Amino acid sequence: MRVSDLSAKLADSLGQQRRYLDADGCSTRYDFSTEHWRRLVDAGKAPQPTRFGRLVRWFVPELEEWEAAGCPPIRQVKGGKR
């Protein structure tokens, strides 16, 4: 059994909400593939993650705030000049 599975069961048994989600959790929450979720983040269309060493996680209240605002782009990407 993976550590993430154990921590999920522990959080469920204690009745606590998860405060951070990994890329798989975010992709499940928004019904995207994990790769699509990562592309949205890279393009600046989804919130940037918090890093804990090598761990990459998204703060759930920040995701909820982004949802409440209508999921706007996080940063504006300038187009190239011709």
Features:
single chain, alpha+beta, 82 residues, three-stranded antiparallel sheet
Task: Describe the fold and architecture.
It is elongated, with a radius of gyration of 15 Å. It has helices at about 5-15, 25-30, 35-40, 60-70; strands spanning about 20, 50, 55-60. The protein contains 4 helices and 3 strands, in the order αβααββα. The longest helix has 12 residues, at about 5-15. α2 packs across α3 (about 35-40). The relative contact order is 0.14. The protein has a domain at about 20-70. The chain starts with a helix and ends in a 14-residue tail after the last helix. The model has no long low-confidence stretch (mean pLDDT about 85). By secondary structure, it is an alpha+beta fold.
Name the beta content range. Answer: 5-15%
Q: Count of helical segments?
A: 4
Helix content: 40-55%
Distance between the termini: 54 Å
Mean pLDDT: 85
Largest sheet: 3 strands, antiparallel
Structural class: alpha+beta
Task: Note poorly predicted spans.
Answer: none
Strand order of the largest sheet: 1-3-2
The gyration radius over C-alpha positions equals 15 Å
Oligomer: single chain
Organism: Aeoliella straminimaris
Protein name: AlpA family transcriptional regulator
